[in-house]
């Protein structure tokens, strides 16, 4: 699909260029009636958040914080302060629009001036975009357009656009300064360079950076004052760049960056589409296109229930998703299940007070929160089955529309996905909506995360996923390392997935074939079971074959041939195996990273099944069932 096939230069000229879009995107500050209709609860929360920034000391960005990324590998010292500045501006701007009394304008001006004087808007982690990346400080003469630079530009553009009158009454130089800095730091490099990889004009495949950066560029192009021919040129390039993103999306809508990144992938694509839709008064839209719809639907197809999502790749099992965008996406494509997921998340919505805060998305959340109060409650989107053939990912639950019973998700694919982990054949299992066999996720990002040393990080390695270790070797990274002979089938009673893992391992592992098969038998109650079958052929006999399972529950031996994973609250999962074929060892993994501790607590467990004797050919089965805390209920 290409946007340019649906939105031409003539369409842009007719519906956007030369049009007064004031009020099309959001109400102007002067439209007090419109702002007065916003939800009172959120109005008060935003005002309280803004009041904390009134007269507060403005956060300082030091050169040493920028250099800390290169000298210590720390992203947080710089990025935390950078994000705090935008977060404060967002709170002050939205509160001023909601209240309309002018009492936050002075602090907004201070923050605008501070951001305009900031040496660079680019994160040090993205300094590799420079033509001289060896430097450990930013070159003010080479503005770089990364995610953070785009976010800062968009925040300033919204401030200038929404507070035109109040800022000009202080001084017209404020908005002129914003225009000059955005032109220099964002518009010029965007138009002069095609070598920012995220644009998609080179050999590297674009990922979520593309719609994210383009969404911020589109914000600037729509809100900033510029000549019609310049605006037309910028909009043309945005559409061409977005085409490159859409060209590499899977037809099934699967996001290889995982559900956690949905808000920064499909969600940011929605930001672009919605800006065009609103700016054109609804004339420019592609919400009826199948790919656009499937990209939106991916997020609920990965929804387990409660706070949990399938979290392959750099994802969290309990992600912080943008439910306002999810709700809007559902309304635009007329999908009740997507809209329902938005309702679920917005029910516990609280305004963000720190971290990544984007003004457009928060405005969308304001509107979504108001809309939901007048909507009927939709059924939770607990889909029974999902198979994404291009992504090679499947999910299945025991009961359609319910978290009761077993839930299985598994994947194939290759080991060069965006935000890749070496995880071909990996799977997760939940019971009654609770996690038992898990994907660990990713620790807090550091300099190492997106470097040649990425796979030195334990969470990226196949050895810390539920996968075989063969002759001491785990899987390797790279597109050549992929699943083979992938086959999926389903019926009302059974779901099956089979794939050969041998191609994911290096030649040194000596594996000719490793057929992993899942059979999910959807019987009633505790009779439901997931059977995992492993069939292998090795190049020569080996005494070093291990199978790992990763759990957030402490494993115990319920009886010979049965491992029990108890949730401590009456629920449990059992794993039945042939004890004469396997020795078993349990390893406790201390969780020190705060991002992982928030989800899993202070410990995880690696269950190691160690093959007894020599293996040249193997054929083993494991049976996974839900049970009570004593290990009863599952059938062996």
From TrEMBL:
InterPro entries: Chondroitin_lyas, Hepar_II_III_C. Pfam families: Hepar_II_III_C (PF07940). One of its GO terms (molecular function) is lyase activity. One of its GO terms (cellular component) is cell envelope. Gene3D superfamilies: 2.70.98.70, Chondroitin AC/alginate lyase. Residues 411-521 form the Heparinase II/III-like C-terminal domain. It comes from the Bacteria. It is found in: Cell envelope. Its main location: other. Coiled coil: none annotated. This is Heparinase II/III-family protein. It comes from Cohnella ginsengisoli.
